[in-house]
Specification:
234 residues, alpha/beta, Rossmann fold, six-stranded mixed β-sheet, 10 helices, 37% helix, globular
């Protein structure tokens, strides 16, 4: 479903990604792991078209989308939940959810989609008319994920979804991810909680200084203390 080849990206003169390449098959959960600053977030942002200076190939469902605008990628079925959540201040939970439908071909199904989201996220159902930015950190993360799912994506990219969230909500979140995967959603996740990420994933790629330095089955990496110590320490 997703093929990345020789992906390079820059912030100003800083060459952050240096020829990254990997793939994600339909229905898989794949995680990118590595130390802070390794280039994981830049990889997701480049795939979504949010890094202005980039070269290489990013194919989604066989089409090279690297030159495409971000809103077109969303319309094709690619969603992104950023690390900083981007909940819009002053808008209610419901209004934030509606933003996920702005560039979606499913806008005409808003009522049905919002009802489904409310069933999936009971914490949000109770707060639909509450200002989104007044939710707790974990609830805001749930809202960011729900907003991305409102577009009914085929592949969702999650950037550090458990960061700063209390353990009970982390448990809920990863149970949700596992259920979405069972239902056929393809997942690409960046996560510092290595054990949780590898328990969810089928395969993993390790990023170090803007390059893929190791890849393998998630269970294999989870059982390899040398790999975890060298590349996965937070």
């Amino acid at each position: 479903m997703l093929e990345v080849a020789n992906l390079n990206a820059w912030y100003g003169r800083s060459h952050i990604l240096q020829g990254i390449g990997f793939s994600v098959a339909k229905g898989e959960a794949v995680c990118l792991i590595g130390r802070n600053g390794a280039g994981k977030t830049t990889t997701l942002r480049s795939i979504m078209g949010l890094v202005p200076k980039r070269t290489g190939t990013v194919k989604f469902k066989g089409e090279d989308i690297l030159p495409a605008p971000t809103h077109r990628r969303l319309g094709m079925g690619l969603a992104y939940v950023p690390e900083d959540r981007r909940i819009v201040r002053g808008l209610t939970v419901l209004e934030n959810l509606r933003l996920g439908l702005v560039a979606s071909p499913n806008r005409h199904r808003e009522g049905e989609i919002i009802d489904r989201i409310a069933e999936t996220f009971p914490r949000l159902r109770e707060r639909l008319n509450q200002a989104g930015d007044t939710l707790s950190g974990g609830e805001q993360q749930m809202l960011a994920i729900a907003r991305a799912l409102a577009a009914d994506p085929q592949l969702i990219m999650l950037d550090e979804p458990s960061e700063g969230i209390m353990p009970v909500l982390v448990d809920e979140m990863f149970e949700l991810f596992a259920r979405l995967k069972r239902e056929g959603l393809t997942i690409l996740i960046v996560e510092q909680n290595v054990e949780r990420a590898l328990a969810l994933a089928d395969r993993a790629y390790i990023v170090d200084q803007g390059e893929i330095v190791h890849s393998g089955g998630a269970a294999e990496l989870l059982a390899n203390p040398e790999i975890q110590e060298k590349y996965c320490a937070v």
